[in-house]
C-alpha cells in the first residue's frame, strides 16, 4: 500500500521516514518504507550507494526487531554486498568512510543475529569483518572474544580479541566507535575475562607480552595482574575478587562469598555474562530495546541447554541414583526436603516424587524466578538466602537435604556441616555432590601437603578430599552411608570434571537416663 506522500519520495526521503518509524517502533511501516527505498535505487550515484547500504542495514534491524531473523540476515547481507560491490567507486574519502562505518555496523548486527540463532562460527566471522572495516569497533572485538572463549574454545584467539578491545578503549588518540558512557565497567569485565583465560594455563606455563615477545612471564602472574586491574576499574566486581583470592590466597580462602555466587546465577538468569549486558547497553539505543530484551528472555532455556547438553552435566541424576542405592530400590518418602542451591530445579525435579514438602533455597532471586517458569509448582516454597542460615533456622525440622553442585562454593565445610546437623531431624539424610581433584593433582598434594583438605581450582570452585569430608561427618554426628566416585559429571574447557557423591545420615541422639 502506497501512503500519501510516499509515492514520489526519493530513496533518501524514504530512508529518513523509515528511520523515524523505526525509532517509534512502527516496525512494519519501517520495513515497508525501507523496501520502497531499495526499489527506488537506480544507477551508481554516490548518494545512492550510501543510501542503499543504509536502507538495507536498517531493514535488517527492523526485521530483527520483529523476530524475523532469516529476513534480517538477508537484509544485512544485501547491504554488505552492495558495499563490497561499490566501495571502490567512492573516490571521496569522507563518503567512503561513511559507507564503511555503516557496513561495519551492519556486519556487527549480523553477528548478533547469527549468535541469536546459535550460528557461532558465522557470528564470529561477522564480528571479525566488522572490526576489519572499523578498527575502532571495540564491541565487535569484545563479542568476538566471548564467542571464541565460551563457545568455540579458541582461547588464544579470544585473549587476543579481548586485548584489542581493551586497547581501543584505553587509548587516547582516537575516539572509539560508540564509546561507552561508563567504560570502567567494561574495562573491568574485559580484564576479568583476560585473567580467566590466563588461569586456564598450567601453573608452570609461560606467557609473553606483546611489546616484549622474547621475555617470558608466568601466565599466573599475568592473571593476577589482570584480576587486580579489573578490581581497580570496578572495586565491586565480585567474580574478580573471588578469582584474585584463588590466585593469591588459596590456603586461607574458606568459601566463595555469597555476593560472588549470587552474581554467578543472577548472570545465568539474565541471559548473558556482564560483558554482554554492558555491550548491549549501547546497542539498545541504535537497534531497539526489544531485541536486547528477547536475548535476555530466552536464556532460561539456554542455561539448562548449555549446562546439560553442551557441558554434559548429569550430577543431579547420579545423585538420585546413588540415593536410591542406599535403600536398595525401596526409597521412602520424606516429609520436609530442602534443595540447597536449587538453581532452576534440576535436582529438585529428581527428588519431587519422594518429597511431601519440597523447599528450594538459592541466593539468587532471579534464578528462583526462572525455576518457577521452567518447572511451575515444583517447589512448595522457595527461599532467597544463605543455605547455612536456612538450615540453622529450621532446627530439627528437615528430613532430607539435597545439594547438587552447590557445595562446591565452600572450601571449609565446618560451618556447613554444623548447620546441617542443627537442621536435620535425628535419622535425617543429606545427599550432595562435590568436585574431586585430578589424579595428578591428588598425587602432588599428597606428596607436598599430606594434610590437605580442599583445593581452590582455576574455575573458582573448590575440589574436596574424600578423607576430609568423612572427618567432617564424623565430627558432626553423621554417618556416611554411601560414597560414589563419579567420572566426568560435567565438562570444563573441554575436559571432564571428576567428582564424588556423599550421603550421610544424622545419628540418633540418646538422652542419658539414670537407671
Structural overview:
- There is one protein chain.
- By secondary structure, this protein is α/β, with parallel strands linked by helices.
- It has helices spanning 11-23, 27-39, 46-65, 69-86, 93-116, 120-133, 138-150, 155-170, 183-199, 219-233, 238-248, 258-269, 274-287, 289-297, 299-310, 315-326, 346-351, 365-374, 387-393, 414-423, 439-448, 466-475, and strands at 206-209, 212-218, 334-340, 355-362, 381-384, 398-403, 424-435, 454-456, 462-464, 478-492, 495-506.
- The strands form three sheets. The chain has a seven-stranded mixed sheet, with helices on both faces. Strands 1-2 form a two-stranded antiparallel sheet. Strands 8-9 form a two-stranded antiparallel sheet.
- Strand 8 and strand 9 form a beta hairpin.
Which features does this protein show?
alpha/beta, 16% strand, two-stranded antiparallel ribbon, 22 helices, 56% helix
Per-chain topology:
Elements: H1 11-23, H2 27-39, H3 46-65, H4 69-86, H5 93-116, H6 120-133, H7 138-150, H8 155-170, H9 183-199, E1 206-209, E2 212-218, H10 219-233, H11 238-248, H12 258-269, H13 274-287, H14 289-297, H15 299-310, H16 315-326, E3 334-340, H17 346-351, E4 355-362, H18 365-374, E5 381-384, H19 387-393, E6 398-403, H20 414-423, E7 424-435, H21 439-448, E8 454-456, E9 462-464, H22 466-475, E10 478-492, E11 495-506
Parallel strand pairs: 3-4, 3-6, 4-5, 6-7
Antiparallel strand pairs: 1-2, 7-11, 8-9, 10-11
